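Field reference: "sequence" (input) and "structure" (output). Example, Thymidylate synthase:
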Amino acid sequence: MITDRNEHAYLDLLRHVLTNGTEKGDRTGTGTLSHFGAQLRFNLADGFPLLTTKKVHFKSIVYELLWFLSGNTHVDYLQQNNVRIWNEWATAAQTARFNRSEGDLGPIYGHQWRNYGASQGADGSYNNDGIDQITNVIKQIKTNPNSRRLIVSGWNPSEAEQVALPPCHTMFQFFVADNKLSCQLYQRSADLFLGVPFNIASYALLTQMVAQVCGLEVGEFIWTGGDCHIYQNHREQAKLQLTRNPFALPTLTLNPDVNDMFAFKYDDIKVEGYESHPAIKAQVSV
């Protein structure tokens, strides 16, 4: 069996938190085992870091990322494509807390990425006068690749309490060297069993998309976590995952004709060598 050191690093972190994590309370009342501060590195030339010890729903990853990049904050687009990962936060009961209609999530990731700091009209809707951080960072990568300011922030302190779930992945930074693009994410709150595998794949995909439109090769994706935790009701599933051996990572391919960051469609993004693998077929999506 072929193993991959990148996935082993994630499994080592999962094992460390299971063994050494501190028991803490949390907003859900479930309780966690938590560890503060961790980092994982993934060489994207070695393969696409979609975990092989647990099936991760790649379709949801792609549609969610395209949704973020569009700047849209209503769940209609996701629901129309049978992606339900944001439904919990989009109910009438949740959105009514912020005087928004059902399905309107407010200033979450897409808003911060594409319209950061926008003003609001009298009806509470956002004007299109904020900062388009994605467009700006791509322009900077193309024109000033040595910049140390290739940063996109998902955390806006003035709006963090205006959403049901404040951003967990809060800031990412790009780095160009030797014609390769790398990206580092800081994630303030990291659900190691459910959320982090999804986040790793999402930002690895984002990095490859940005690299393509900027005419660069891929370098590393670096994941940095703050409060890294395993929920108490995930302990047994995490232990089961640790009994599995990783196999070779799949390959991500993008439609080479796409050179506009906002022109990517779902069918332009393919992952090969994942769903067809017998070990993945036998697992349950999370």
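The first helix runs from residue 5 to 20.
The chain has a mean pLDDT of 93.
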